[in-house]
Amino acid sequence: TKPYTEQSLKSRLNRAIIRHEALIHIKNAISDGDYRRAMEGCNEMISKGSRYAKDCIKMKGQLLFLRRELKEAKKLYESILDKKPMVWAKLGLGKTLVELGAFDAAAALMEEVLAEDERYIEAHDMLADIHTKRNDMVAAQKSMERATYISPKSVTRHRELAELADINHDDDVALKSHQHAIKWGFNSCHESPQDYFNFVRKVADVTEGDDSSESKQMIRQANTFLDRARKRYANTPEIEAQALMVETQLHASKGNTKKAEETPIIYFG
User: Fold this and answer.
1) pTM above 0.70?
2) Distances from the Cα of 130 to the Cαs of 74, 96, 104, 116, 161, in angstroms?
């Protein structure tokens, strides 16, 4: 979104490639699940005063977390923050505190991060997680709403928001979130037939006994999504079975008991 020259872009890409190549042995160890080897690689580069020592310290914090050495991770992040208020260290510390069960401290730290800049999406995600663990679903929904506002194309966040809204009986937000999950997931690696079915189920639930024009419009849209799911996942018996079940729910919500009873049953085996 910012103007840049071809030369400045080339320079930044070259620096990124050089850094990646210098750290590739550590990244490969992490990919292999060999956290001990990765940690040794980090410690070696840090002790030698590598120009990428700061990157290694950041990776070391992540490795301590992955190895469940939470107290050591906490000490590392706190030692960094004692010197300079780095946001990545605050996020790392917050994540560690959550795992240690220190929800109040973690929440306060995330609020501090967002006070500096509310665009730090990970802080919103973490607050939603903290509120959920506290069983404060209303606060969790508010945090996730903010997260989806900042990151409107995140399919997974819209799914999480829909789930929280369902728990809080916030039908409007749940329906919109299911729709957004379908919209942004379409033709992507995140697309799932469950998003279509979740929307249809919600519509069936919300429109039950409601004969208003708004209700009829929602049902038409639900049928459109149901048809799309069938076309996109044709020749998949499991998907067709789910489609028939949610279709039955739609008929029942409209009071079409006869149609609901006439829905065919698929037998597997």
Assistant:
1) yes
2) 17, 12, 9, 20, 14
